[in-house]
Every structure is written in C-alpha cells, then in structure tokens.
Specification:
mainly beta, 7-stranded mixed sheet, 2 helices, binds zinc ion
C-alpha cells in the first residue's frame, strides 16, 4: 500500500500499484510548480489511484500546452500531473515526494534536461533526455 498527502493533510490519496515510468522532470513548468530544481513523478493507472480525502480541495491549473497540474487549495502542495498522453492512456502522474508510506520505487530517468537550471547537475547514472523520454 502506498499512501500520500499534502502538507496540510486535508488531501489524502492512495496508490495500489506504480507503473514503471518514474522520472525527474527538469522542465520549467515543473520547476515553477514545485518551487524546486525538478519534479519527480511516478506514473499510475487511473484505476490504481484513489483520492481518499479532500478531493474538493484539489485545484487544477492548465498550462498553455494543455498539461494539467493539481495542487491543494489549502496548503499549495503540488501533487498531480496530467498530459494528453496520460489522458489517452488513462494514467496520471503523482508527485513521489508527497507519499508518506511507499513501497520501493526507483526513479529511472531525467527528462527535459534542455530546461535544467544552471545551479544543479544530476550526478547519477540514470538515462538523461533533452526532452521527453524516447
Ligand atoms: Zn493541503
Ligand atoms: Zn516537467
């Protein structure tokens, strides 16, 4: 069982199973949304994801490119990402750092390094992509 929540605790969710794609995303939208050098999202099938509390507090922001990011209206925690590929595949991406209880999950790529900040260099062995994962 994998359980997560926002900073104020009012939004809670659970994931029964993670899909293989877990990436550190360095795109400028993720950076700004998280207020961090990169985001780390794990992909999950919609059927394996449940918001167990505070669903009405989830606020959506749709960027110019159609990607949707969801955050807690009360505390601002960035929690969910959704692109048109996710909508096509009936998946969703959840911010890995928001989990309180989590099984072993290992990020397996850096993506959108073309937008990376100058003050952070990934020094791990993970595959690195200029844009989306090929
Ligand atoms: Zn919150
Ligand atoms: Zn991104």
């Amino acid at each position: 069982m994998n359980q997560g929540s926002c900073l104020c605790g009012k939004v809670q969710f659970k994931v029964t199973k993670f899909l293989p794609a877990v990436a550190h995303c360095h795109c400028s939208m993720c950076r700004k949304f998280h207020g961090a050098a990169f985001s780390t999202y794990a992909e999950v099938s919609l059927e394996d994801f449940t918001v167990t509390a505070g669903e009405q507090l989830l606020q959506s922001y749709q960027a110019a490119n159609g990607t949707v990011r969801k955050f807690c209206k009360c505390c601002g925690s960035s929690l969910i990402f959704e692109s048109r590929y996710n909508r096509q595949d009936k998946t969703i991406e959840i911010a890995l750092a928001a989990f309180d209880v989590i099984e072993h999950v290992a990020p397996n790529a850096h993506i959108y390094l073309s937008s990376k900040v100058d003050w952070f260099e990934p020094n791990d062995e993970l595959p690195k992509f200029k844009d989306f994962r090929e």
